[in-house]
Amino acid sequence: MHHPAAQRITGMGATIFAEMSALAARTGAVNLGQGFPDTDGPPELIDAAVAALREGANQYAPGIGVPALRGAIARHQRRHYGIELDPDREVVVTTGCTEAIAGALLGLVDPGDEVVVLEPYYDSYPAMIEFAGGVRRPVTLRAPDFRLDPAELEAAVSARTRLILLNTPHNPTGRVLDAGELAAVARVAIEHDLIVVTDEVYEHLTFDDHRHVPISTLPGMAERTLTLSSAGKSWSVTGWKIGWATGPAELVAAVTAAKQWLTFTSGAPLQPAVAAALDAGDAFPTALAHDLQERRDQLVTGLRAAGLSTHVPEGTYFATTDVGELGWASGGDFCRALPERAGVVAIPSEVFYDAPDAPGSGRHLVRWAFCKRPEVVADAVRRLAAADLTR
């Protein structure tokens, strides 16, 4: 008997990360595709999780998260940004930021509601908008500078728009939205009475003089902004999947209402460990950002030496190159040929666009991860330098 999949997932297939990671494993290529570090977070964080395991934190945690972690998240927001939160009503712990995204969209978007989203986008955004029955309205950050155009943002809003889904520091471009761009988002949100859901998982991983500013700190935005983040990126424990959503109680309640039917709760022994890490201060994320900046420079220098036009990211784990000048029809063609040609895997950015062929869009863009040990980056750079990368 034939049992077809539900229509909502028909055509989605596997994520590009699964495809390219499998290609890396099959060919033995250096994997600069999926964005996870190849070293663990601070030993104190690991030790805290082991202690929690041994001390009996192995049963269900409260659905909204253990009190210690909710309190630590509130203190983190106050310490860094001056944001005051009630940890019992304005914080919910999620299974990574990915579940926070899912909970936000399922909890806030009705069928037919429009969601304005920055493009290129993290690939869970369009999937969850579709699951919620929403309609996405992309606003493209156009190469090579990837700046937000306020006029395009305004033009994307209609009477059916429910929310703006923001991401800064931005994956995959590495942009950190500046004061003018954030002000433009705030102006549109206030004028049209929109919710802003903002994914800030790379909040501590910015470079040079760029600093992350939460949009909820702008005038008139605290009451309409749901902020999402996690411990995975800033503390190098991406596999722990401990994230959170913070903001007005009614927005957090919407996330919680959806989340309770997804995982309900997760990571009970990891939550007190993350709480301890948040309360321990900023030494590890600060050092990590410094190390990542050095690896960014190492990779960008190597990519340029290999003949790849490369944008210097202001934050995140990722650098973007344009392979059109090398004669490739698309980044996808380049990335699927690259493991055999050079023994390296990267991600084609075209999959993060609705219309990758539009001017300034992503047909020829490729994303490279530099959140790897220096010797791994060096190996990848050597391989690229020795290969013929032209079509």
Reported by name, the CATH topology of the largest domain is Aspartate Aminotransferase, domain 2
Strand order, largest beta sheet: 2-8-7-6-5-3-4
Unreliable segments of 5+ consecutive residues? none
Portion in beta strands: 15-25%
Strand count, sense and barrel status of the largest sheet are: 7 strands, mixed
| Measured distance between first and last alpha carbons | 45 Å
Rg over CA atoms, rounded to whole Å, is 21 Å
CATH class of the largest domain: Alpha Beta
SSE series: HEHHEHEHEHEHEEEHHHEEHEEEH
Structural class: alpha/beta
Number of E-type strands: 13
Tally of individual domains: 2
Query: What is the helix content?
Result: 25-40%
Helical stretch count?
A: 12
Overall 3D form: globular
Mean pLDDT: 96
CATH architecture of the largest domain: 3-Layer(aba) Sandwich
CATH homologous superfamily grouping of the largest domain: Type I PLP-dependent aspartate aminotransferase-like (Major domain)
Would you spell out the secondary-structure blueprint of this structure?
Blueprint: H1 16-27, E1 30-31, H2 43-54, H3 67-81, E2 91-95, H4 96-108, E3 114-119, H5 124-131, E4 135-140, H6 150-156, E5 161-167, H7 179-191, E6 195-199, E7 225-230, E8 242-246, H8 249-259, H9 270-279, H10 283-305, E9 309-311, E10 318-322, H11 331-342, E11 344-345, E12 347-348, E13 365-369, H12 374-386
Parallel strand pairs: 1-11, 3-4, 3-5, 5-6, 6-7
Antiparallel strand pairs: 2-8, 7-8, 9-10, 10-13, 12-13
Helix pairs in contact: 1-11, 2-9, 3-9, 4-5, 4-8, 10-12
